[in-house]
Design brief:
Strand order of the largest sheet: 1-2-5
Mean pLDDT: 76
Radius of gyration: 16 Å
Shape: globular
Number of strands: 7
Order of helices and strands: EEEEEEE
Low-confidence stretches: 1-11
Largest sheet: 3 strands, antiparallel
Length: about 130
């Protein structure tokens, strides 16, 4: 799997590792890099910060998540309603045979069968059929 990464702290005490340090990075979604939105605005496009243009989008107003400012340690988040909010990737990454996924999220636990709790899924948005 390659060389291990050692995470350390700089003089300021902050971690000096960035996901862009990972060779082969294909997607980096950062809520703190979203521009032009105010608190509670709908997110139409969440741009990929990897440099590969793997942007996630949603054209249907009712299915757009919202941008929330100063939610976690003063940083913004993208909030999905757990029912039908989703962002789609135009060019599928299904061809990958292996990889690593690092996610920082907070998920509210809701009753069984209520809402969609998938973080990543392959689905037909028109029919809601998941693969």
């Amino acid at each position: 799997m390659g060389n291990p990464l050692l995470l350390g702290s700089g003089a300021s005490g902050r971690v000096t590792f960035l996901p862009s340090d990972v060779a082969g990075l294909t997607l980096w979604l950062r809520a703190d890099q979203i521009t032009g939105l105010a608190d509670n605005d709908a997110v139409t496009t969440w741009s990929d910060d990897s440099g590969l243009g793997n942007n996630f989008t949603q054209a249907t107003a009712a299915k757009k998540p919202t941008y929330q400012t100063a939610e976690i340690n003063g940083l913004p988040v993208v909030r999905f309603d757990g029912t039908d909010d989703l962002l789609a990737l135009a060019n599928s990454m299904d061809t990958a045979t292996s990889g690593m996924l690092f996610i920082v999220c907070s998920a509210d636990v809701i009753g069984a069968g209520q809402g969609n709790r998938d973080i990543f899924a392959s689905a037909d948005e028109a029919t809601n059929d998941q693969n």
